[in-house]
Amino acid sequence: MSKDYRFIGKRTPRKDALEIVTGKATYIGDITKSELLYGKVLRSPYPHARIKDIDTAKAEAVPGVAAVLTHKNVPDWRTGMPRHVPVLDRKARFVGDAVAIIAAETEEIAIEALDLIDVEYEKLPAVYDVEEAMEPDAPQLHDDFPGNLVDGFPVFGPKTLSEVVVGDVEKGFEEADIISEGTYGYESIANPLPIEPPGVIARWEDEHRLTVWSGTQSASWHRFIMQSKMGYPDIRAIDTQCGGSFGSKNYAPLPLFYAAALAKATGRPVKVCFTKEEHLGAFVLRPGSRFRGKIGIKRDGTVTAVSGVWFVDTGAFSDMTQGQVAVGCGEAQLMLRCPNWDLRTRLVCTNRSASGVVRGFGGQELESALNPILTMALEKASLDPVQFFKKNYVKPGDGYIWREGNYWVSRGTDYSETMDKGAEAFGWKEKWKGWLKPTAINGARRTGVGVGVHGNADVGEDESEAYVRLNPDATATIYVSVSESGMGQRSSLCKMAAEVLQLPLERTHVTPADTMVNPFDFGLVGSRGTYAVGSAVIKAAEDARHKLLDLAAPKLEAAPEDLETMDGMIYLKERPEEGISWSRAMGIMQTCMGFGRFEPDYSVPNFLIQFVEVEVDTETGRVDLRRVVSATDVGQIIDPPSLEGQLHGALGSAGIDTALFEESIWDRTTGHMLNINMIDYKWRTFLDLPQFENVILETPLPTHRFKAIGVGEIATSPGPGAVRMAVSNALGKRVSEYPLTPDKILKALGKMGRGKTE
Amino acid sequence: MSSMKEQERQKIAFTVNDVSYELEVGDQFNQVAPSHTLAHTLRETLGLTGTKVGCDQGACGSCTVIMDGEPVLSCMILTVECDGRYIVTIEGLQDRRTGRLDPLQQAFIDNTAFQCGFCTPGMIMAAKSLLEKNPFPDEQDVKEALAGHYCRCISHYHVVEAVLEAAKKGR
């Protein structure tokens, strides 16, 4: 394990730290443009309704209103997969669906004018349950999706995974000693809810050129993906600092549509920033997930067959949910080493605000729903779950079909040691008393422990390109389209380039995330920043360094391979005292540019195991999360505090707490979301923090120069299943509904109504 | 014609970061509307965008500023209520001439006590107010002072360390 790095693995201040602590960091809400107008959205009060008539005359007459748009006069742009979501439609499909948009001189004027739009609705019956929506007489949301089943859409190419069908499940179940089956849901449909609501400013430079500023996670999406939805205008996408995303703000197609349509209609830049209510009720939610099926295992923990149907509820439309289905199908195979699969999927629309990209991306949803069936099988076999995961998590040489439909063989590491180290730190052996057995009973309070695992092979997903420009003043500029939404990745990329160039971190900078300035990068998704983006930046830095040494070689009368550079000087390796500066090597009016590119590689899965301890009060039904231990192996830590922060993130962004109290709640008679504010939508406070310990191993991995992979995304994913297991163990009764709010605990204990236990 | 007295009443004066402001109340673009929150006035009228608005519902703490020594939610206070008040925002902590940071700001940097950074100004202001009243807080004091602050990235653990470190260094 190489530890003699200068920056890699060291605690260094975030490059943007000063801006953040002084309030100078600039988010989308902080910027304005000359002649800026403000856009606002009129939203449907009904979950399903046809717009019979819409009259905007009174709104248009309000002084200061610049444009009012409805389905009759918006541009013909469409988002969704396949393209089925226009800017505005003649139908509303959830409470909060957009009906009209207004641009005005101030937000107040726009809001005032919204009230003056007269809409005549024809109310339609609505459907909220994923399986009810598939019934023959169910209300139909989209003409293009009979039975409310969303068509397959090859988001990752023609073989995109929408099922896992391999081997022979009948034979597999015959070989099983234990078969466990049932139908379970992970249907908290929680909100990743970054603190900052989404926002976009759009400005048309001419008929064809559109500039978009936004606080989003992956700048390239607003150019490369949105172009295809808008008839291929030349979009320049610029990211501001992003106030949290967790996948949900990878991009913001509808806010962008509204801003760009209003900007087109008015000839002026338009800013659309959602309110918190809109953020909660009309932006990105986790998909609903229900699994009906069975798992067969042998007594020794060998998995012989998995079969069933995974029902994925995407809400009013699908935008990337097919991607989550594909990755979920892939991730299930990483967790369960099994030769026989018959896992089918159904992607279904219902009358609620739509699901979209969220950290955990399909795998968290599928595995949390599968969890009760899997753990019942382990319970029947009296198997320790840690031993089971050690046996079944993908090992080097094991294969899996990944999201794009190709078969990959893991070149990664065996994570058994990670599981052992995590178990040791948690004290698993002492605390685990067997299935449905509490760790301790103290009067009405019962303690239980649980464990979950998760992994993703997307750490090397998609393409990245980067330039590194060496400047004669001994600074380096990294050209890469990477935004800052909290991962610290812009800083970490500086550390990688600085390490290659042996340049002080203060002399290494990254360009703003601007698609006009930078080459292509897919964005910070799937923990790809460390391996995929890192590889491109490292290659670009190495390329620039080679070119610099080539330039210096004749001046030092030496071969380039005999030269070294450090702190902006170039010298012969054996004579560090006789060097020349970068400016002498390249000339004061020149720069030296390197290029690096990364091609996708799905052969190195990451991994995280999470242990939890809960205390259940059997009188009040309250569950306290007391302790969390997460263990992972990242190959090589790049930036310790950023990594710790990402792992602590298990408690946020609709992660572990979707098993305890986080959920979106709808009134199923009106379709209205009931907890559409940050008081009623529950979140963990400083006073509720559990003890939290991270165990981080560094086994060099076959990725790039620094042998590292990312892991941040998956921190949220093992938690819900682990908590469900821990609460069941504490109670001595299986509980299977998420979230485990006090009412469900009391029902399970027979203290309130009828409970859902077995 | 309104009387002199009425005209006077239509102005409000307050101090932000040692700068005095006198703003007219009214419905014109350059005036403070009776509906404007302090957060709105700070950000949109005075251009002090360091104060962040996360929810605008008084629930997330991100818009916290210090008013007459107390941490307050600037999205829950109307600007017209602020006549005669003394307000400190995140922009008021760093010494502009020397560049010297408040010890809390330095501790947040040293502990990387943020991820996306959006909640950071509000947290620093609440912590600043805490340390002014209680220079010797323990962990529980810090958690209680910050209980109303939402951080979805989960930087809580690093924030608690940063505030305790700043308190220790300030003694």
Q: Give the name of the CATH architecture of the largest domain in chain B.
A: Roll
Q: What is the CATH third-level topology name of the largest domain in chain A?
A: Aldehyde Oxidoreductase, domain 4
> How would you write the strand order of the largest sheet of chain B?
2-1-5-3-4
What's the architecture of the largest domain in chain A in CATH terms? 2-Layer Sandwich
Could you give a short account of the major beta sheet of chain A? 7 strands, mixed
The biggest chain-chain interface is: A-B, 59 and 56 residues
Taken in chain order, the helices and strands of chain B follow as HEEHEEEHHHH
Low-confidence stretches of chain B: none
Shape of chain B: globular
What share of the residues of chain B lie within helices? 25-40%
In terms of DSSP E residues, the strand content of chain B is: 5-15%
Radius of gyration of chain A, CA atoms, in whole angstroms = 27 Å
Looking across the biggest beta sheet of chain A, what order are the strands in?
Answer: 3-7-1-14-11-12-13
CATH superfamily name of the largest domain in chain B? Answer: Beta-grasp domain
What's the overall geometry of chain A? globular
Cα end-to-end separation of chain A:
49 Å
CATH top level class name of the largest domain in chain A: Alpha Beta
Mean pLDDT of chain B: 94
Report a brief summary of the structure.
The complex is a heterodimer of chains A (758) and B (171). By secondary structure, chain A is an alpha+beta fold.
How would you explain this protein's 3D organization?
The complex is a heterodimer of chains A (758) and B (171). Helix content of chain A is 25%, strand content 25%. Chain A has 758 residues and is of the alpha+beta class. Chain A folds into 3 domains: 31-124 and 196-243 and 250-282, Aldehyde oxidase/xanthine dehydrogenase, a/b hammerhead (Aldehyde Oxidoreductase, domain 3, Alpha-Beta Complex), CATH 3.90.1170; 288-459 and 603-748, Aldehyde Oxidoreductase, domain 4 (2-Layer Sandwich), CATH 3.30.365; 462-598, Aldehyde oxidase/xanthine dehydrogenase, molybdopterin binding domain (Aldehyde Oxidoreductase, domain 4), CATH 3.30.365. A 7-stranded mixed beta sheet of chain A has the order 3-7-1-14-11-12-13, sandwiched between helices. A 5-stranded mixed beta sheet of chain A has the order 9-17-16-15-10. A 5-stranded mixed beta sheet of chain A has the order 20-21-29-30-31, with helices on both faces. In chain A, strand 20 and strand 21 form a beta hairpin. In chain A, helix 8 (321-335) packs parallel to helix 9 and helix 10 packs antiparallel against helix 11. Chain A is globular. The mean pLDDT of chain A is 97. With 171 residues, chain B is of the alpha+beta class. Chain B has helices at 4-9, 38-45, 103-110, 120-133, 139-145, 156-170, and strands at residues 11-16, 19-24, 64-67, 70-73, 86-88. In chain B, strand 3 (64-67) and strand 4 (70-73) form a beta hairpin. Classes of the chains: A alpha+beta (758), B alpha+beta (171). The interface between A and B is large, with 59 and 56 residues.
